[in-house]
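ok so dumb question maybe but i'm new to this and my supervisor (M.) told me to 'just get the structure for Radical S-adenosyl methionine domain-containing protein 2' and walked off. so i did the thing. is this what she meant?? sequence i used:
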Amino acid sequence: MNIRNINVPISVCWTITTHCNQNCDFCYAVKDVNSLNLDKNFKILKKLVDSGVKKISFVGGEPLIYSDLFPLIKEAHKLKVITSLTTNAILMDHSVLKKYSSYLDWITFSLDSLNNNIQAEMTRENNHVDKIIYLLDEIKEKNYNINIKINTIASKINKDYIEDMASLIRNYDSIIRWKIHQFVPLRNNAKKNKSKFYINQKEFDDLKDKILNNRILKNVDTRINFSGEKELEKSYFVIDPNGDVNGNNGVEKIGNILNYSVSELWRQIECKKEHINRYKKVIDI
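this is what came out, is it supposed to look like this??
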């Protein structure tokens, strides 16, 4: 595949809101950026699809807080783009899941262990594990055609409990991907709480070896990926709630998508090769 032949990103992470219903101590998300109204977001969506973007991941904050999320995802599905939602699941009950089930190709759930006490120590909500399992059961029982990805933050608090999640991965065929992220003290809460969560590269590599050599996981089809501190925010094309596009370090603003074409913004991204290597399978879906 020739990088020069790809003039726009394959996949876009669209931070639809920075508002969140949690305040996780490990979170480095940008805060307090105003969201655009639905009409402007429809314009962004059309621009992305018309340019040839294949997949849009709606992220936050907590995207379900954004009041116009449903019509936006419904329209994206209508335009035949692959749709993905990343959520902490607090606002997702059976009725919300049913409402979105016909319009989402992927849902990403955040889960850092199978122990509610560890989850609470990670500053997740109470009974977070039970909520995720309930939703996974609901997807299984209702036979919703949704692919599931699990995002796990590897930290000092939970690193000895992550391997136990192998049983969950094995029990749900809908879990297509499991991605384990090394905690990174980039900014905001994460930077303030570095001593509470930080693990070094050797600790992360040791965890990776344990996961890859787990006997249970050798017999599952789930794709398991690891994202270390060095890979942080590389390869992503990120749109902020106000339309600003993040550049090569995840912080630099390279322009607003309402004012520039997608291809113009893409030309300013240095990590094209990493992006294409990450998302090239999407082209074949």
